[in-house]
Amino acid sequence: MRPLYIGLMSGTSLDSVDAVAFEFDASGCAMLASHSEPFPLPLRQQTLALMHPGADEIERLGRLDLELAELFASAANNLIDRNKLDRQRIRAIGSHGQTVRHRPEARFTLQIGDPNLIAERTGLCVVADFRRRDMAADGQGAPLVPAFHEALFRTPGASRIIVNIGGMANITLLPGDTELPATGYDTGPGNVLLDYWIHRHQALGYDHGGAWAATGTVLPELLQHLLQLPFFSAPAPKSTGREQFNPDWLQQRLLESGFGQRAPQDIQATLLELTAVSISNEIMQVTDAGCDIFLCGGGCHNSLLTKRLETLLQPYTLSTTATLGLDPDWVEACAFAWLAGRRLDDLSGNMPAVTGAVNERVLGAVYSP
Length: 369
Description:
The chain is of the alpha/beta class.
């Protein structure tokens, strides 16, 4: 019987903690169960506040480190109990934690959600702190999921691109020629600005299907102003987060461009176009037509966004990772279950071609039950 791993992932959007049960060995892999633990609103608000510099950050960090750990442990325990999983089969929990700072230019990243407490509450081995070892080896510490994408989705003779659209968006390039390395990097904002803008003006958590954006008109001048950010033209390796794409950045760009008084739905339409164009521009620059594109992450449910990507990426074929056998909503959580297994087997978890690290490294710290 194959060993079982739990993967925990809380992304930039802060909508829930995703928990999966994932089994794998040399013969194959499968996701057995999944569970989403909603973020309590007060905890979400406190975490968002911590993501922006302010007073008493050390005090807030210490408290939230424990509160988030309780939430992660609850997600793991609920996944196990509701699916009647055998705890004796579970080799480890791979917990990504919640990123509250990501500063690759300063070789600094921080994810919180104390793994010591998760181990105590679940009685299971926990593997966490995946990013900092790569960063210590001169890498960006992100994105890490391309290594999982390669292990699970790469097939000789089939050129593929995996597009993950979470709060931020990233791409993984999987050449059909196995002599060529897989690569990947962040392309810019995914849902993060869209979610912020609709919450501000409609008090909604997200724009379902892009319906609100569809009522607006893209503002080309504003779009071009947003795309002037050096990040978009910077070469890989590159990674980003809320430190760059946040409400303050957006408000400043609206003020500079003189579009701050335009209809909110027009801004939303333009932000959706920013996500679509920043993703498609990168793909068109790095590969030729003839490969298949597979979407994952919450953004793949935004039908307006996927339609724009289909239009911008013609003649590429777009589908989701469900076509490859893994539900697009759970790919990232599965990736950290997989990374936990790599750590316990003393196998590398990073891809230097992606992060820029000097070499492969075993990622993560182990916390025994």
